[in-house]
Amino acid sequence: MLLPLTSLALATYILAFPLLYRQAGVEAASFSSVWLAMAGWSLGPWGGLAAGLANIPLHLALFTWVHDPSINALQEAAGLESILSPLLGFAAGTLRNLLDERTRTLAALRRRERTLRLLSAVNHATSHANTQEELIRIIPQVMVLEGGYRAAWAAHAEPDGRLEPLAWAGEGAEALAPCLAASWEGPRPTCLRLADPGLRAHRETAERYGVRAVLLLPVTVSGRPWGCLAVASAQPAAFSPDEQAALQEVAQAFGASLERVAALEALARHAVTDPLTGLLNRRGLEEKGRALLAALQTRNEPAALIFLDLDRFKEVNDTLGHTAGDQALIEVAHRLKATARRTDLTARVGGDEFALLLPGADATTAQQVARRLQKALEAPVELEGRAFILGASLGVARFPEDAQDLDGLIRAADVAMYAAKHSPAPLVFFNATQDQAFREQVRLEHELRQALAAHQIQVHLQPILDLRTGETVLFEALARWKVSPAVFAPLAEAAGFAETLDRQVLAKALAHLKALRDAGFPGGVTVNLSPQSFANLMLPDWIRAQLMAHNLPPERLVLEVTERLLLSGEAALATLQDLKRTGVRLALDDFGSGYSSLSYVHRFPVDLIKIDKSFVQEAPESPRAHAILEAIARLSEKLGATTLAEGIEREAELEVCRTLGIPLGQGFLLGKPMPLEAALEWLEAPQTVR
Prior knowledge:
The protein is of the alpha/beta class. Helix content is 56%, strand content 17%. The protein is built from 26 helices and 20 strands.
């Protein structure tokens, strides 16, 4: 624009020079500074210098043109002003460059300031956004309020390539959102003007809201295309390359912020999620459960909490290892999620303990859900080619009847679950009387753990006699503590440390047997082990080591097993077979009191069958019990096993057993459990049936 004016100024100066000369004389040459300054301004320093050099011959020609004999044209043309004219042109051009540079610098600073302001706003939004959804909602508002744009959008690229606007801000943003999808060309910047197809279809809407240009900027998250950040301007020539580069920085910061927030969300999920099963962990149950109960309380709605504990999970771990145990837990979690309602919270709150929080559930609904859970867990779990029925004990607590807050509800459900583990019923609803019983059980469990740690469990010996000769042939090792074995043995099994108890009792029993044999006793000792011990495949190796340590022949040890153990699965039978090959003898305890185990007795011959005391004690008065006692005696004889009658407490019971030819007997009538010292004295006394 300035160059034509410079040319016009030069032409005007040349044509007007005669007139100027008549008015000002040789001083007319000073008017050339105007066009020289304009030449330098428009052509730059070197252009102005060239114009100044050209000014000397120009004035020689002009002074010659005016035909004034009183002046020397060459002298005037080469005067001081003409000599300085190149410097004037150069200075004008330099000044123009300096001013232009200053203008560009100020514009760049303003752009940078806006970029930094936007980046700061994006970072501020990131620090205050707890979720990706919240960040996506805030960013368009930041672009409008801090960036001064007419409108802004955050849009996500769907897997099918479609662009889906998620949030927007500014006038007309919602109405213009469809133009983004129509103009999206993938992960590269796209600038739209009113004449472009993307905006032309929405030209009327764009003009109504004062939008003249739209820029779509790609956003990547973790190196993968996420979508775009789009802004609209009221300026038709908006979004220069510099502005696009600055806004691309903002889009990159937005992508990085999405990545950071996603990482924080993942950490938050990890903090409340069980990594193995994907269910909530205890913390997650507490956080979500408190919020849920608070909402239910405002609406005066009920809820129920179900706690469940797997009954035979330890057997899986001990038999197949922790990898199989993890698979079992994952399968249980799948069944829980399949059983739970859509609104329920499912959680794994311990090793093999799970919880379900049922919003809006009354007692009837809670019982229905609990029954479905029981049924789901009754189906066998296939692990490494074996089928395990895990079973579960369930406790249910109701809100607000049993507790007014989540902590109280968890405690009540835990108490009910504990009661279920120690009762025949696998499903128990909380009641106030359970709480005191629970406290007592917890106290006893703690004291029993301490007693085991200090090896304070005592072992007494009860004699087993040959009913024909009165000779003591065996002793049964019985654990003794400050409460009855009927109390602490189930407690140890439910708490998961029955194996520890078994090993301490067995080790002491073998030490007692060593002392008895040193005193001349030729017989052996029987020890009752829990199913937890037999689930450990290392049990035979441990027993062999104990026998060697006490220098005892394996046939002097008789391990008592129950019918429940024989029915528990192939793993326990494999352990029994290993022990049998070692030379250890096996006794079937309380025969006839549980499930029919004749098939197992046939498949796995035992050495000793102990008849349950209920048949022995009823036989003198009950012909039916007498017949059963006789049948068992004859069956044992046919199977090649020795029969032992338990619980003989009266002479009449002893007489029945003798009449039926039962060779061995045990009971208070024959001899009570006694410490080792008393057992040694017992052996020194005359050996007759007392």
